[in-house]
Amino acid sequence: MGYVQEARENHVKKKVEEALRSKMKQKALKECELYTSKYAQCAMGRTLSVVWKCRKQAAELNDCLHQFTNDSVLEEMKRAYTLQQDAKERAKA
C-alpha cells in the first residue's frame, strides 16, 4: 500500500475523530472496570491522601487504560471507519 493511500485511509474529519476517541474511551473504561472499582474503593472517604494511599491502584488503572487508549488503537479505529465508509460508498454506486 502506498503512502498516499495509507494517509487517505487514516484521514477523517475532526468530528468523526472526536466520536472515535469517545468510543475508544468508553471501551477502555468498560475493559478496565475492575481497576476502576479498586481505585474508587481506595479513594472513598479520602481527600489529599488519595495521592499516596492509592498510588498502586492508580498505576494499575492507568496501565490498563493505556492499553485501550493510545495512538495505535485510534489509528486502527480510523482505518476501520474509513474502510467501512468506502464500502458504503461502493454499495451505493
Automatic annotation (TrEMBL):
Its main location: mitochondrion. InterPro entries: Cyt_c_biogenesis_Cmc1-like. It comes from the Eukaryota. The keyword Disulfide bond applies. GO terms for cellular component: mitochondrion. This is COX assembly mitochondrial protein. Keywords: Disulfide bond, Mitochondrion.
